[in-house]
Design brief:
- It is a single chain.
- It contains six helices and twelve strands.
- It is an alpha/beta fold.
- Strands 1, 2, 3, 4, 5, 6, 7, 8, 11 and 12 form a ten-stranded mixed sheet that branches. A two-stranded antiparallel ribbon has the order 9-10.
- Helix 2 runs parallel beside helix 3.
- It is globular.
- The N terminus and C terminus are likely disordered.
Length: about 210
């Protein structure tokens, strides 16, 4: 009798945390993608939108069971906007292929999701500090870090219009997380130069 009573008054055993979609856009990111996907293995969906990779990017995505969609590159903002719109879950974690979550950041995000019952969303978004890899060393823990809106409710989000400085924006309250995600950047100088050239072309396009 007491067991039946406690079962009637306790939360449903079927109640579960808010599910999460990881969204990553890629183009020839085999050098960094594995670490990114490993660090977000707790995501309920791993969605990768690729714009024509010719290296091992797609093979790595297959190893991690990613749902892969293909779309020609349409600019940083439009590409990410489209990718986020394809996610299956309401909450999205947006990472670049050269970014990853250390364990403390993983646990903080999982604890946050555990506090949200599916169908009962939390805030519109959460800003996460980013630790940069600079000359082969990460910024030290006392450094002042920039924060980026990378975890958010996609039903309340839109992407800024710029093709280069595009960033998620949300309609509603946001909060800051404590632990940082890491940004490794380009694996070699040739990739870095190519990215700078693409970035410069995008700046010109924004001004036209």
């Amino acid at each position: 009798m007491s067991d039946q009573s406690s079962a009637a008054t306790s939360p449903s055993s079927e109640a579960r945390r808010q599910p999460l979609s990881l969204v990553v856009t890629t183009l020839n990111n085999a050098a960094t993608l594995r670490r990114c996907l490993e660090s977000a293995a707790f995501a309920d969906e791993r969605l990768l939108v690729d714009s024509g990779s010719s290296d091992d990017t797609l093979a790595i995505a297959a190893e991690f069971g990613c749902r892969v969609l293909h779309k020609p590159f349409a600019g940083y903002g439009p590409q990410k906007q489209w990718a986020i719109e394809q996610a299956r879950h309401r909450y999205v974690l947006l990472l670049d292929a050269d970014e990853w979550l250390p364990e403390d950041c993983q646990l903080e995000i999982q604890a946050l999701l555990a506090g949200m019952v599916a169908g009962q969303p939390g805030l519109a978004g959460y800003r996460i500090p980013r630790r940069e890899l600079i000359f082969w060393q990460y910024q030290h823990r006392g450094a002042r870090l920039n924060r980026y809106l990378r975890l958010f409710d996609r039903q309340r989000f839109h992407m800024s219009a710029s093709t280069v400085h595009a960033a998620p924006e949300v309609d509603g309250p946001v909060a800051d997380l404590r632990y940082a995600f890491h940004h490794d950047g380009e694996p070699d100088i040739h990739t870095k130069v190519a990215k700078i050239n693409a970035y410069s072309s995008g700046l010109v396009a924004d001004k036209l």
